[in-house]
Every structure is written in structure tokens, then in C-alpha cells.
Amino acid sequence: MFKDKRTINLGIVDDHNLFRKGLIKLINLGDAEKKYNVLFEAESGTDLKDKLKKEELPDIVLMDIDMPGMDGYETVEWLLRSYPTVNVLVISMFETEEAVLRMIRLKVKGYLSKDIEVEDMHMALEAILHNGYYYSDFASDIISRSFSETDADTSKKIADPKEFLSQKERDFLQFVCTEMTYSQIADKMFLSPKTIDGYREALFQKCGVKSRVALALYAVKHGIVNL
Q1: Where is the signal peptide (predicted)?
Q2: Whole-angstrom Cα distance, residue 109 to residue 125?
Q3: Do 168 and 62 have their domain in common?
Q4: Is-above-0.85 flag for pTM?
Q5: Same domain, 167 and 118
Q6: Are 173 and 226 in contact (CB under 8 A)?
Q7: Are residues 83 and 31 in the same domain?
């Protein structure tokens, strides 16, 4: 989606000025190729609305949740309704199941904790650019647990298994049906090995299997993967 762009434009929305400056520093520290450009900073959802009237549309918006006035949830809902091509990466101190799943339902592209390092920031940005999404280990754990809590008979009740698999899971299954190791799959999908483990365990639960071979056979049998 961004392959032909030389510069990726970012917007930062957080009510703490020091944290916004810290994010900019993290972005610049790992950006040897000067690939990223911070178009603007906003201190709230209302401020973001004003900035978007004056600035070029960013490719990715880094979004806090706890803000005065329009909080992160309300801001994301408005932003993606008004500008659906914008990608949102949430960076928040909230690591609760409710916060993560609520943002996932709003269709954000990634979720990070605020105690991130340079590598975390750039791994997330690169994954969103090349793969369309990125969830840190704690967010992936929450997502995986939410899968495990679904009806164990789901796969038997739905005629087309593709209906209960996300695009991320279908992408993962494509790689499962190759000779790549899980570590290589993690690199290919711009995710951590722990996140890949979460996808695997969630799919074992959803598909009712207990091994990689059985998972691959399931994917081929149900037309999820064509060899």
C-alpha cells in the first residue's frame, strides 16, 4: 500500500506534550533513511479535527486513549468514519482486555503500551506499512484469550470456515502451509515469535486441531489455502 511512497506522514495525538516529544525522538532515532515525517501534533480529538483541516492527511496516526474532551475511542471512531484510509496505531498506558478489544473492534491497525523502545516503535510502523497491522505481545495475548473463550463448536456450526477467520489468521495459514519455521513466519509477518505462538494456539482452538500438520490439512481441505 505504501511501497511507492518515499516519505510516510505521521500524526501524533496525545494530551501530554512531553510524551509527544518523546515519540518524535523514538521515531527519529531509528529512522536512518529519513522515511518518516511527523506532520503535526494534536493534544486531543478536537485539536486533531482542527489540524486535519489545515494539514495534509497522514498515513498513520499515533493515538492515545485517555484525553480530555474527545477520548481516544471517540476520536478513532470519528477519524476512521471521516478518513477511512488513515491507519491508527494506539499507544496507551491502558493494557486492559476491555481497552484492547474495544480498539480492535474500532478497526485500529495496531496497539502498543507506552513503555516502548525504539525497536518497538519501528517494528510497529514497518508492520503496519507492509502487513497492514501490528499488535504487541500483551495485545496479542488478549486477542488470543478472547478467541479461546468463543464457542468450541464454532467451526462445526459455520458452513464456510473463512467466515470466522480474520485476514491475519488467513495470512498466517498461508505460511503454515510452507516449509518456513515459525520464527521465519514471524519475520515475514513483522510480528514477534510470541505473537505468532498466540495465532497458532488460537487457530488450534478454532479449528479443533493440535498440530501444525493438522492445521495445514484443515486449511487446504476447507479451501482457505490453495496449494
Answers
A1: none
A2: 10
A3: no
A4: no
A5: no
A6: no
A7: yes
| CA gap 180, 162 in Å, rounded | 23
Q: 112 lies in a domain?
A: yes
**173, 207 contact by CB (below 8 A):** no
Model pLDDT for residues 115-169, shown as the tens digit of each residue: 888 888 998 998 888 877 887 777 777 766 665 554 444 443 333 555 567 788 8
pLDDT of residue 75: 97
Q: Which three cell numbers stand for residue 221?
A: 481441505
Any idea what the CATH number is for the domain that residue 123 is in?
A: 3.40.50.2300
pLDDT > 90? residue 210: no
Three-state SS sequence of the chain: CCCCCCCEEEEEECCCHHHHHHHHHHHHHCCCCCCEEEEEEECCHHHHHHHHHHCCCCCEEEECCCCCCCCHHHHHHHHHHHCCCCEEEEEECCCCHHHHHHHHHCCCCEEEECCCCHHHHHHHHHHHHHHCCEECHHHHHHHHHHHHCCCCCHHHHCCCHHHHCCHHHHHHHHHHCCCCCHHHHHHHCCCCHHHHHHHHHHHHHHHCCCCHHHHHHHHHHCCCCCC
